[in-house]
Write a structure and sequence with these properties.
About 45% of the residues lie in helices and about 15% in strands. With about 110 residues, the protein is α+β, with helices and mostly antiparallel strands.
Length: about 110
């Protein structure tokens, strides 16, 4: 059983349609490959998660309001990565420890 048209004009039309469809599929594949490559490059270029984070208050010169462990889900957008000694110093100076990630326990700082 032959499912193709028997005449040349309709076969040419079908050929054109198939070529156009194949071009669309190939363009879509190329676009998805490009997006995946960009995603992988973004992951590779992403800076490492800091060990400790200071969450800053609102305003340009606002003091820190919380100390977080790096990667804490509760760290706000106004945060900056710091080293261990800076995080400890902030806790000593009265900056609150995040109640969720408890960086004071990890740092070994027991508030008096």
């Amino acid at each position: 059983m032959n499912d193709l048209p028997p005449d040349l004009p309709r076969l040419r039309t079908l050929e054109t349609w198939l070529a156009m469809s194949l071009d669309r599929v190939r363009r879509q594949i190329g676009e998805l490959e490009r997006q995946e490559q960009e995603r992988q490059q973004g992951e590779q270029a992403r800076p490492p998660v800091p060990d400790w984070v200071l969450e800053l208050g609102i305003g340009r010169d606002s003091p820190a309001v919380y100390v977080h462990e790096g990667g804490c889900w509760n760290a706000g957008a106004r945060s900056k990565g710091v080293d261990r000694s800076t995080a400890l110093r902030a806790l000593v100076e009265g900056v609150a420890a995040c109640p969720h990630c408890r960086p004071d326990s990890t740092l070994g700082y027991l508030d008096g």
